[in-house]
Design goal:
binds acetyl coenzyme *A, 12 helices, 7-stranded mixed beta sheet, 3 domains, acyltransferase, Nonspecific Lipid-transfer Protein, Chain A, Aminopeptidase, GNAT family N-acetyltransferase, Acyl_CoA_acyltransferase, alpha+beta
Length: 431
């Protein structure tokens, strides 16, 4: 018998044992190796979490009102685990929308492909709708899993490299502010302030989980060395930018002298430029590696030679799924005013999304109301709407792929123009 429901506190250890990160099973892409590069190509295999560790995780998670676990029990045994974290995500028009972020998902190998994830996903969608969250989001371990549940990529992230001797910046006015290397305690104070300023004006950025920056430390991470923290302050001494970077040790000439930027945020162009000016020309280094970064990194256009920045890796980051289509589409704004009548079909997990809808947007506000019976201009899949929602993808591409069918000439172009946003949406962390 299959039972899908939130686990009880005493069931949490069994719940965690369904998760790869608790059982020590391999990860598809160990983040440090795949993204930052480093000495060891793969970090060492993690040991399964101890009973004490599982108990501590259960205690912490049960205190967290934004953590909504879901479990699948087969004949009483916990065989599958997943969870949603409640976030607020910034959408076009600088508003925020509630999003259930799917995280910590696993089905024990001997129980897989029996529909346990599908059932957990359905239960989590229903619970998110009850909490009033019109969106679900996630970052995917494998690209082939989540489209069937209505998710589709909405943001990208990249890793880039720059050779220091090619990284001359175009001339610019001198910085009126100042830079300072600080310790982890100071960085923990600055990060929330800078992130809040950035988040207010970045589509795709998420509210950080409580304690997000608590783990910042001055301790060395083996040969990768310690994280170092560079803060920018404006001319009044107010912190408006921060970067976390490492200078890993290497015996290999190919990777020696690499400066790895793991995070950098700035609330304005002057702070952004000042931070990068030092990091791309750091004494005794040869190469700068940065990840995860936005695809439309402005630094490229500050370089005298824009080709010097080489994107060495790109993947999709946040996948979006519309749970409540009219609430989601009327919560964002549309830079290009317009009107569209479109039809969604075949959404079995959120059937209220099906039907014909009329979206009307005047540049600052929008309405999305049922228009069943009206002449439709487009058929749009719920996946295409997920990708288009934050404004980073082109509707034309989804028309090529068959996710959008045009019944009135010019309707795809109108959809594309209405949904696009500038700059490209970005989320600086995954969950
Ligand atoms: C958001 C995150 O947390 S990402 C982390 C996801 N977790 C992992 O990658 C850990 C390892 N993988 C697993 O634990 C499991 O394979 C899961 C959780 C991904 C899938 O669990 P399952 O219970 O097997 O999924 P379920 O049986 O509901 O599958 C539904 C459908 O997805 C397909 N599917 C599931 N996983 C995969 C996959 N990795 N690749 C391709 N198809 C898949 C199934 O074949 C099935 O297809 P169908 O609807 O056409 O019949």
């Amino acid at each position: 018998m299959i039972d899908v429901r939130p686990p009880l506190l005493e069931e949490m250890p069994a719940y965690y044992r369904a998760l790869p990160y608790a059982t020590g099973l391999p990860q598809w892409e160990p983040e440090d190796a795949a993204w930052h590069g480093g000495l060891g190509p793969w970090p060492p295999q993690r040991a399964p979490a101890t009973a004490e560790r599982l108990a501590a995780m259960a205690a912490a998670d049960s205190e967290d009102g934004n953590f909504h676990p879901m479990a699948a029990f087969v004949d009483g045994a916990c065989a599958g685990a997943s969870a949603m974290l409640s976030f607020e995500i910034r959408v076009p028009g600088w508003r925020t929308v509630g999003m259930g972020g799917v995280t910590a998902t696993g089905v024990i190998a001997t129980y897989r492909r029996r529909g346990l994830l599908r059932r957990m996903m359905q239960a989590m969608f229903d619970a998110a709708l009850e909490r009033g969250e019109p969106l679900a989001g996630l970052s995917a371990s494998e690209g082939g899993i989540y489209g069937r549940y209505g998710f589709s990529p909405a943001t990208y992230l990249v890793r880039w490299e720059l050779a220091r001797h090619e990284a001359a910046l175009k001339p610019a006015a001198p910085d009126a502010g100042s830079l300072e290397l600080v310790d982890a305690a100071a960085a923990r104070q600055v990060w929330p302030v800078v992130h809040a300023a950035v988040r207010a004006r970045r589509v795709g950025e998420l509210t950080p989980q409580p304690g997000r920056w608590d783990r910042l430390t001055d301790e060395a991470d083996g040969a990768n060395g310690p994280l170092r923290y560079l803060v920018h302050r404006d001319e009044h001494g107010v912190a408006d930018g921060i970067a976390d970077f490492r200078l890993p040790w290497s015996a290999d000439a190919a990777t020696a002298g690499t400066l790895v930027v793991e995070a950098l945020e700035a609330a304005n162009p002057a702070a952004y430029r000042a931070l990068w000016s030092l990091l791309v020309d750091f004494d005794l280094t040869k190469t700068v590696v940065a990840a995860p970064r936005p695809r439309d990194e402005p630094l490229r256009w500050m370089l005298a030679d824009p080709r010097a920045m080489r994107i060495t890796r790109q993947t999709e980051s946040l996948w979006i799924r519309l749970l409540d289509l009219p609430a989601a589409l009327s919560a964002r704004s549309y830079d290009v005013p317009g009107e569209l009548t479109f039809t969604v079909e075949g959404d079995r997990m959120c059937p209220a999304n099906n039907g014909t809808w009329r979206l009307q947007a005047d540049g600052s506000s929008a309405t999305c109301i049922p228009a069943d019976g009206a002449k439709t201009e487009l058929r749009v899949s719920v996946q295409a709407l997920g990708s288009l929602y934050l404004g980073g993808m082109s509707a034309h591409h989804f028309a090529y792929a068959g996710d959008i069918a045009e019944y009135r000439e010019g309707a795809v172009d109108r959809l594309a123009r209405m949904f696009r946003t500038e700059p490209e949406p970005h989320n600086s962390f995954v969950f």
